[in-house]
Every structure is written in C-alpha cells, then in structure tokens.
Amino acid sequence: MCYPHQVNVGQAGSGLQVIANNFPLPFLTKSIDACLLAQTLCYTNDPHRLLRELDRVLIDNGWLVISGFNPFSLVGIGKLLPWLKHRQPYVSHMLPQMQMLDWMSLLNYEVLHQARFQVIPWQKKSNTFLSTHLPALGCMNVIVSRKRALPLTHTDQYGNKKTISTVGGRRNEELLSHYLTFLLISEILLGWMATCITRQ
Question: Is 65's pLDDT higher than 90?
C-alpha cells in the first residue's frame, strides 16, 4: 500500500515507485521527511553504510523507523537449526537491538520509542501476555528515532548570544512516535498474514 507522498524504494520487487541501489540513494541531501526500514538492515551487506546514506537524505528532525528480527528469540534460534537456517527469515542477518541503538547514538539520533513483540512467531495474533512480561524474547525489534541537529547560537549586533533550539513540542513527538509505531506494526502483521495465506 502506498500513500500520497510516500515512495517505496528497492532493487527489485512489486509495489515499488523507485528501483535503485542503496548506495547512493537517488535523493537529494536533506530532502526526505521520514524513512521506514522494514527488515531492510537484515538484508543489506553494509547496514551502517545504509544508515549513513539515510542520514544524508533525511532533513533535520526527520523521522527514522527501523524494524528487524531479534537474534535472541525463537526466530534467532532457528538460525542454528540446519533444516531452517537456509529459509526465510532465518537466512537474514539479525542485528541486536542494542547494536542498532548504538548506531543511532553515533549518528546523533534521539530514540523516542523502542520495543520488542511477537514472542511466538507462528501465532498470527501477538500474545499480549508474553510480549508484556517477556519483551526481551520478542521476535521483532522496533525503533522510532528522530534526527537531531546541533542547536544554533545566534549573536545579535550587541554581542548577545541566544541559543535557538531545533526541538519541537515533546507531546506532539510522543504522539507521532506511537502513531508511526502503530503503522509499522500493522504493515508487518499484514505482510506476515498475507504470506501465511499465500502458503496455504
């Protein structure tokens, strides 16, 4: 599904508006408001380079939403089983959430929301009890972050300095963060259910 002003980018596949390589992305510097990486880092050879390229095209205070597979989960255990490790999604490169958070910090991104969910991967409906009490074992990682620019210091004609903050309203940021997370989880679950229906 594609919404107005939304562009799906990839090297191959259906539902794409732009077919291109990730290095470099075919966008001008600081021209994108928000970016969603749905399991993208798990399937790239150089995830840190991809994040740097996204940092180039995102505007200041732009949004970056990342999802991926948790290696410390039942899906991660599947990579150790010989009869599963060559199938999807076990063939992907699963990144720990702490590693992705460290990358966000190095790139000066403020993490507004992070979560793990779907402890039992073969259930179409997420188990709320397990996700609440055992979030560390969730098969899916979600990180909602925002690109932060350094505050500007303005000096007037009299030599007085004034710091201009680039941070918006905190309450609005939290609401938008939850909304983006809801959209991401909805798209992931819909894609998962579509895959299960296709296989039946």
Answer: yes
